[in-house]
Amino acid sequence: MRPTALPPFQLVFDDHAQAVLNFLTGAVGASEAEDCFQETMLSALRAYPRLGDSSNLRGWLFTIARRKAIDAYRARVRRPVPVADPDPGSALDTHPDSDDGLWDQVRSLPSKQRKAVVLRYAGDRSYPEIAAAMSTTQDSARQSVHEGLKKLRRELR
Amino acid sequence: MTIDAALTDRFLERAEASRLVDVAVTTMDTPIGTLLLMATTKGLVRIAFEDENRDDVLGEVAAGVSPRILDSPRRLDAVRRELERYFAGTLRDFEVPIDWSLTGAFARKVLHRTARIPYGSVASYGEVAFGVGTPRGARAVGNALGSNPIPVVVPCHRVVRTGGAIGGYGGGLPRKRWLLALEAG
Q1: pTM for the complete prediction?
Q2: Nearest neighbour of B18 by CB, restricted to A37, A42, A48
Q3: CATH number, domain at B156?
Q4: Is B13 a residue whose pLDDT tops 90?
Q5: What is d(CA B33, CA B29) in angstroms, rounded to the nearest whole number?
Q6: What's the CATH code of the domain at B35?
Q7: Structural contact between residues B24 and B38, judged by C-beta atoms closer than 8 angstroms
Q8: CA distances from B140 to B22, B106, B137 (A)
Q9: Cβ of residue B9 closer than 8 Å to a chain A Cβ
Q10: How far is Cα B183 from Cα B158, in angstroms, rounded to an integer?
Q11: What is the tally of structural domains in chain B?
């Protein structure tokens, strides 16, 4: 078999589902993580046969997960009712992964900073996009990211 | 690290509802060992004995049919029920639909012919070769039978050597003897 052959999707799921869920719990909070997780895995499964390169399946899944996290944020900031902060107990605590400490900190940021940082760094969004997603100005989006990063640096030191 | 089972179940449910499961997989315990069963939406596509390497079998189906393979037992319920009755001696003819995707043109002809050998009887490699229009092709028939992706249900165990010697079997001769004994009643 060619080395680039795609493994059965079940194996991809078994190998990476927990890490993807951990990431999403950090990015959007436990209450929305499952929806994002399902959307991520369904999108991945849909696109899977057309995936040319199987060398970085984890990275590929995380790219999709980031996009779904952005979608969730956009949907959330459009909602008029404030959403409860993600609950503190989560899979992150029981399954430490390389990034988990950082995402734990991100989760504990104030809501506006958290959204802005996730959109900027997990979602790789531009400031105009972040501003649009958060229904705010570019300056304010930039400010929230800046404040969030400053707080993270302080706490991770 | 295994993820919460309920989460996996919901994913599977949605994947099936969105028709994204090209190949469903499950296993089944039988008197001749654990069988790996795989089905597409068209039908049963692969049965593997437990001594075949599971990853190799899955890889073969991923490459030959589709890599959208998920553990999804429900789609194989009908296959499982027929196999249960077969192993109990109460089913003589399988009726589940077959997906021949993993079989080339010649092998397909051979296996179609083989599927018509009645329960409890046998044919020789030469007879099957004659039946598919290649009277001198007994060896090619043997190869085609050896590559049968759906043993038991497509009864390649019913093909033996002229004169009654048992011949070969991809799943090993003890299994072939067991199946023939089951069908002899």
Answers
A1: 0.77
A2: A42
A3: 1.10.10.10
A4: yes
A5: 6
A6: 3.30.160
A7: yes
A8: 31, 9, 5
A9: no
A10: 10
A11: 2
